[in-house]
Design a protein that fits this description.
Elements: H1 10-14, H2 24-34, H3 39-51, E1 77-80, E2 114-130, E3 139-146, E4 152-163, E5 166-185
Antiparallel strand pairs: 1-2, 2-5, 3-4, 3-5
Helix pairs in contact: 2-3
């Protein structure tokens, strides 16, 4: 863009570039030689990147209002959990002990769970979960979201509650790529 447009707009355009989302290699080997940004701007981006949690960076995500994006239609996939194939098919009526749901073992560090990787980075603020409701069990759980599957932010914590059936969960909007549901106690 900068090669084909006047130099007076370069600064305004460059302010829209999310430099802290670039890797150190990109900043040093692509951005720096371009001469489009001052060394201070590059150093500021490196400082923000090194001092911030990944989930606190200003990621861009897709917003699809009032639509279940955790489906195969949108490229989502279950990467952790048992019986993965039927979890994202959208059928919330036909499930039993053999199909239509997922489960996970409970471990001490709470890293096991059901993890769904969305088809693309997405802005979410609402999750609906159907907990197993074909008997009298109740569940405690938490939900975390991540962009890189390393830095997780807890958006829902119902680890001290007994929950059943449909859960309609709201939280402040976050950009994420992965959703982890864990700690199902009976």
């Amino acid at each position: 863009w900068c090669k084909h447009n006047s130099k007076e707009n370069h600064a305004e355009i460059m302010q829209a570039v999310r430099l802290p989302l670039m890797s150190l290699t990109e900043l040093l080997n692509v951005v720096r030689p371009s001469g489009l940004l001052s060394p201070d701007a590059i150093l500021d981006a490196i400082k923000v990147r090194s001092e911030s949690r990944d989930m606190d960076l200003n990621y861009r995500g897709m917003l699809i209002p009032e639509e279940n994006i955790a489906t195969m239609k949108y490229g989502a996939q279950v990467v952790k959990g048992e019986l993965k194939s039927a979890l994202l098919d959208g059928d919330t009526q036909n499930y039993d002990l053999d199909h239509g749901f997922s489960r996970h073992p409970i471990d001490d560090d709470f890293r096991s769970g059901i993890e769904i990787k969305l088809g693309q980075p997405s802005i979410i603020n609402h999750i609906r979960i159907l907990l197993w409701d074909r008997d009298s069990r109740s569940y405690s759980y938490f939900i975390e979201v991540s962009m890189d599957e390393l830095d997780w932010i807890r958006v829902i914590d119902h680890s001290q509650y007994l929950c059943r059936s449909w859960q309609k969960l709201y939280f402040p909007a976050r950009v994420c790529r992965s959703v982890l549901w864990s700690y199902s106690s009976k």
